[in-house]
Inverse folding.
């Protein structure tokens, strides 16, 4: 806008020649404008170039290569050669025939569903708590995000320490208050271990839910809450009929993001149980690691990776739909 | 009067509930700090001590001797990841918000998808690709891998920020004769300082806390980040808990520092809809 205005000022065009002389003046003007447009496009592309190169190398190449690997007969010897003989769907067949892989898929579903449920219920309760005014609320809100900042492997290791059979803080307090009469084998009992991992992951994910839901609750207009109060709605009705419908979009996004990073969980399980006892806590991620990096069957590991990738990407259309605001503002208009 | 009393009581009840939640949230951190000062005998006595029992600095002596190299390694990786994220993301986010490019929608959608891709999928392939590119067991390799957490997040967060800068600002710079690069370097980047810090803090924490890529694209011999160091202390039957707790305490330091120094950047980064791990 300004450039055009300036050019108009520096190149005086007689009002009369504007129509007749257009054919004469315009090529030079358009040429200059076009070259400016081209220069800007070029600059934009140059600004993008490092990111495009990075995304191609660190995302596109591995994802494509992972698909290739999953159809190859790999062995430790083929790793150095980058390619291996074609194996058809053999890797996928072995993955689906393998009881541990199948169990890992089931565990991943249970783990993801359980985590999301637990994280949502506790996270929402805390978010509601933080909307109330009470002494120490700002401090509590800033400290509640601590689990989110710790390295995940550290969290896994700490919970391994706390859930020890003997000398573990969890068993100690349960027995001190009389909730358990003998130490519970949290990590070595195959029926219990997955629940222990689940508890640790809920602890880990609650802050994220709390934070996002809290900021959504902050945006609920006071007038709406007051109107509901005037109409004689009780606290439960206000929550269910007024507040939840308003923040529903945020709840959806939170669940979606929670899903995306729960299906990826790896470090926590490795630190806490290593996938044991007797593979009772193997998730797709940990079993895929085992296939690729412990028994060096990269083909099968890649096949299982693709199962995970499909699972994770199932929700991506929904994710893009919910993020459409961020896509739409890409039309270039400044807010 | 009783109404006031009731509301005061209710407030304190809320404080009590928040306190209970905080105890659960912070107890593991407390347990690490206490555990790191406990003697081996205490840790293996079969009793959990809520307060330090016969405190000692032995664990820290062991860990400082064995792991100071790892702390340095993790610092390098964290800073490297932050640097990579900024170099790649700041110009890209600027281009995706202020230039009308045909690829914008495709690229932003791909970035959203990139955040969904599980690290193990990338790690499996990157190990072989790195083998071929001679990047296995190298700092550049690990930093490139760790960038997969930070770069998509950084571009999306910075892009959202750049939308808030008025276009007139850039027009004015161009009218004054600034080139596209000068406009970016002298006008846009300085104004984006707070968003850049947010992104750098998260990228640093990603690099510092990464475990899966350290486990897969390193061979555990010469470059050992602190996360990998902790993992090697975990034995199947005997874990040296004292050393684990002291190194875990070191691994938590950046999170603590960031929470105190960069609190507002962390809060804004988290609400920007972050995806971690």
């Amino acid at each position: 806008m300004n450039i055009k205005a300036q050019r108009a000022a520096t190149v005086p065009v007689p009002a009369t020649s504007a129509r007749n002389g257009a054919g004469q003046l315009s090529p030079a003007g358009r040429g200059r404008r076009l070259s400016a447009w081209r220069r800007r496009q070029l600059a934009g592309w140059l600004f993008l170039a490092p990111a495009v190169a990075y995304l191609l190398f660190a995302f596109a190449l591995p994802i494509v290569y992972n698909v290739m690997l999953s159809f190859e007969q790999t062995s430790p010897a083929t790793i150095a050669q980058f390619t291996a003989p074609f194996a058809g769907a053999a890797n996928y067949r072995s993955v689906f025939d393998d009881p541990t892989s199948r169990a890992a898929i089931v565990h991943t579903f249970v783990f993801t569903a359980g985590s999301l449920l637990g994280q949502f219920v506790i996270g929402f309760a805390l978010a509601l708590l933080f909307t109330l005014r009470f002494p120490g609320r700002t401090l509590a809100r800033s400290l509640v995000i601590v689990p989110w900042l710790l390295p995940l492997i550290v969290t896994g290791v700490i919970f391994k320490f706390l859930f020890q059979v003997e000398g573990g803080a969890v068993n100690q307090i349960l027995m001190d208050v009389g909730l358990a009469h003998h130490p519970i084998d949290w990590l070595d009992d195959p029926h219990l271990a997955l629940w222990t991992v689940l508890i640790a992951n809920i602890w880990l994910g609650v802050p994220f839910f709390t934070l996002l839901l809290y900021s959504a609750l902050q945006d609920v207009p006071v007038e709406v809450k007051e109107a509901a109060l005037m109409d004689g709605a009780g606290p439960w009705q206000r929550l269910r009929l007024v507040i939840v419908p308003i923040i529903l979009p945020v709840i959806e996004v939170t669940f979606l993001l929670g899903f995306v990073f729960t299906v990826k969980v790896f470090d926590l399980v490795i630190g806490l149980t290593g996938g044991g006892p007797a593979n009772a806590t193997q998730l797709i991620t940990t079993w895929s690691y085992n296939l690729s990096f412990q028994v060096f069957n990269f083909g099968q590991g890649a096949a299982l990776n693709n199962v995970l990738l499909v699972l994770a990407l199932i929700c991506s259309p929904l994710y893009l739909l919910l993020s459409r605001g961020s896509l739409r503002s890409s039309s270039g208009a400044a807010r | 009067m009783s109404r006031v009393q009731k509301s005061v009581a209710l407030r304190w009840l809320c404080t009590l509930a928040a306190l209970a939640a905080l105890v659960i949230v912070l107890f593991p951190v407390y347990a690490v700090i206490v555990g790191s000062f406990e003697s081996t005998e205490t840790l293996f006595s079969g009793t959990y001590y809520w307060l330090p029992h016969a405190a000692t600095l032995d664990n820290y002596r062991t860990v400082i001797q064995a792991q100071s190299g790892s702390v340095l390694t993790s610092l390098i990786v964290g800073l490297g990841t932050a640097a990579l994220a900024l170099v790649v993301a700041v110009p890209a986010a600027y281009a995706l918000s202020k230039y009308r490019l045909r690829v914008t929608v495709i690229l932003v959608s791909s970035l959203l998808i990139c955040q969904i891709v599980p690290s193990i999928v990338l790690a499996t392939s990157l190990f072989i690709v790195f083998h071929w590119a001679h990047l296995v067991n190298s700092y550049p390799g690990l930093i490139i891998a760790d960038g997969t957490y930070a770069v998509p997040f950084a571009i999306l967060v910075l892009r959202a920020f750049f939308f808030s800068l008025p276009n007139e600002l850039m027009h004015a710079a161009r009218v004054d004769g600034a080139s596209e690069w000068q406009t970016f370097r002298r006008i846009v980047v300085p104004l984006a300082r707070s968003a850049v810090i947010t992104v750098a803090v998260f990228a640093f924490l990603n690099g510092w806390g990464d475990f899966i890529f350290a486990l897969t694209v390193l061979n555990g011999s010469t470059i050992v980040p602190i996360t990998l160091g902790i993992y090697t202390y975990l034995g199947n039957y005997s874990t040296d808990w004292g050393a684990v707790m002291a190194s875990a305490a070191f691994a938590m330091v950046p999170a603590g520092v960031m929470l105190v120094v960069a609190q507002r950047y962390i809060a804004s980064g988290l609400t920007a809809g972050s995806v971690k791990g």
Observations:
- Confidence is low (pLDDT under 50) at residues 1-28, 329-335 of chain A.
- Residues 26-58 of chain A form one domain.
- Chain A touches chain B through 111 residues (CB under 8 Å).
- DSSP finds 18 helices and no strands in chain A.
